[in-house]
Amino acid sequence: MGIYDFSVKNASGADVSLSEYKGKVLLVVNTATKCGFTPQYAGLQELYAKYKDEGFEILDFPCNQFGNQAPGTNEEIKSFCTGRFGITFRQFMKIDVNGENASPLYEWLKEQKSGIGSKNIKWNFTKFLVNKNGEVIGRFGSTKTPAALAKEIERLLGKA
C-alpha cells in the first residue's frame, strides 16, 4: 500500500484519489483555524504559490482533535482560510489523525515516519513531506515553519 492507493474526501465530501498526485512533491498537513500555529497558513500559501507550477502540492486536512481548535463545518473552515490567508491549495474534509477514527491515510503516514517517542500526531500543523515517488521522506512538528522546508522542497523538485 502506498500513498497513491488512498482516496480521501474533498471539503465538499467527494472522493479524491491520491493517484492524481503521482509524480508530484507533496506536503500533507493537519491544520486548525484557531491555533497558535494557524498563521502558518500564510507560509503554506507562500510555498504553494512559489512551487505549484513546478510539481508541488499541499494537501490540507483540518483536524479538531487538539484542543477543539478546528471548529466549524468544512465550508466555514474553507471560507476562513481563503478569506484570511488567501489559500488556493486544496483543502480536504475535516478528519481525525489519531485514535480509532483516524484517517487511513494518516495511519499510513504515521507508519512511514514516527514522531519522537510516539507514532501519534502531537499537535496541529504536523507536516509530512512526500517525494515524487510517493515516499514519505520527512515528518516535521508544528514548530517547523513552512519556510524552513523550502530548501528540501527545492531539492525534491530537482532544483538544488
List the helices and strands and how they pair.
Layout: E1 7-9, E2 15-17, E3 25-31, H1 40-51, E4 56-62, H2 74-85, E5 90-91, H3 104-112, E6 127-130, E7 136-140, H4 150-156
What's this model, at a glance?
With 160 residues, the protein is α/β, with parallel strands linked by helices. It has 4 helices and 7 strands; from the N terminus they run βββαβαβαββα.
CATH-level-4 superfamily name: Glutaredoxin
Strand segment tally: 7
Structural class: alpha/beta
Uncertain spans: none
Query: Radius of gyration, rounded?
Result: 14 Å
The strand line-up of the biggest sheet is 5-4-3-6-7
What is the overall pLDDT average? Answer: 92
Could you give the distance between the termini?
30 Å
Helical proportion?
Answer: 25-40%
Give the count of helical stretches: 4
Please outline the major beta sheet.
Answer: 5 strands, mixed
Give the H and E element order. Answer: EEEHEHEHEEH
CATH class: Alpha Beta
Number of domains: 1
Assign the CATH topology. Glutaredoxin
Strand content: 15-25%
Structural shape: globular
Q: From the 3D coordinates, which CATH architecture would you assign?
A: 3-Layer(aba) Sandwich
